[in-house]
Amino acid sequence: MLSQPSHINILAIESSCDDTAAAVLQNGNVLSNVVSSQLIHELYGGVVPELASRAHQQSIVPVVELALKKSGLNLNQLQAIAFTKGPGLIGSLMVGSSFAKSLAYALNIPLIGVHHMEAHVLAHFIPEPKPSFPFLCLTVSGGHTQIVRMDDYFSFEIIGKTIDDAAGEAFDKSAKLLGLPYPGGPLIDKYAQAGKVSFKFSQPQIPDLDFSFSGLKTNILYFLQKEVKQNENFVSENLPDICASIQDAIIKHLMKKLIIASDQTGIKNIALAGGVSANSGLRNAILQTGIEKQWQTFIPPFEFCTDNAAMVGITAHYKFLAQQFEPADTAPLARF
User: Which end of the chain is more exposed for a tag (fewer CB within 10 A), N or C?
Assistant: First the structure.
């Protein structure tokens, strides 16, 4: 077992999708957090995996160098290298994992692999206030929608999950139907703030705590096709209200299951995580429901909601304390 250093300095790398990110943490405190987003995917209306991995290769060295420079530390002061090992795009993951493994080997320091969604949840332990255990975390992103019961940093249970599409995908696909550019989810949020809920979409009827968004997406598609057939300018004339109505339908489904989960478990510490946690409508719904239900609610600052390396670093910090290190021959996984 390694002796515990006076300072735990960790360089963390995130490359699961289309953001190249690096952060440096000291004793769980963020010294730097750098994110380089890939704009090329806007031309294609979605992430192109091959282009994403190439962009990571171009960005990872300057991003890591900038994160170290901003932190005031150098490579020889690091105690561990952390990286996202999955889930994500396999090519993107390989760039980050290969870089991290090579650097850890060269510096002869431990390597720490981090699950991307676990990192989103543990992002709550970067800023104050921090949730106490147990708590429920609604984790919502472009690829995942889950309710996670957290009993400790590494003791958790997924008690609800989507059976088909994720909420973030529902936002992005709906935006595409409206002719909005990628990424469309934030644009739906933007337009929704100027609109009102004028159109009703069917709510998924899924048992237990699971979610489903495929039927809702189909309902939105048929609705738009019908209205545009009658008025070709329907979308442009009603865009804010359409966006407000779509956002309302997605959030209602999320909140319904979260309320049931809290009632069933008796847990009133409620957290929100994942890229979609940046959505203003969802944040407001959590806060408002928290007041009504007497929840203690926790939502990370925007910089720790979307993909970033600080969340990887804080997860790695607790893994370091628990001596949970990764073998040098570990392979990234696209899904698990």
Answer: N
Using CA atoms, how far apart are residues 253 and 160, in angstroms rounded to an integer? 12
For residues 133 and 156, give the distance between their C-alpha atoms in angstroms, rounded to a whole number.
Answer: 10
Q: Is the same domain home to 181 and 117?
A: no
Give the Å distances, CA to CA, from 68 to 63, 71, 78, 276: 9, 5, 10, 29
Domain extent, residue 264, equals 129-299
Q: What pLDDT, in 10s, does the model give residues 218-243?
A: 999 999 999 999 999 999 999 999 99
Q: Are residues 274 and 135 in the same domain?
A: yes
Does residue 213 share a domain with residue 314?
no
Concatenated DSSP letters of 206-258: -STT-B--HHHHHHHHHHHHHHHHH-TTHHHHHHHHHHHHHHHHHHHHHHHHH
pTM of the entire predicted model: 0.92
Query: What's the CATH code of the domain at 76?
Result: 3.30.420.40
Burial class (CB in 10 A: 0-12, 13-18, 19+), 274: buried
- Per cent of the chain over pLDDT 70 is 95
Is 3 part of a structural domain of the chain?
A: no
3-state secondary structure of 320: helix
Overall number of domains in the chain: 2
Shared domain check, 265 and 247: yes
HSE-CB at 310 with a 13 A cutoff on CA atoms is: 21
What's the token pair of residue 190? 């933007």
CA distances from 121 to 23, 239, 300, 332 (A): 17, 33, 10, 20
- The tokens describing 27, both together, are 């004793």
Give domain status of residue 4, yes or no. Answer: no
Q: What is the maximal distance between C-alpha atoms in the chain?
A: 72
Pairing of strands 19-26, 269-273: unpaired
**pLDDT tens digits, residue range 276-295?**
999 999 999 999 999 999 99
Q: Which tokens is 153 given?
A: 């940093």
CA–CA gap between residue 145 and residue 213 (Å, rounded): 10
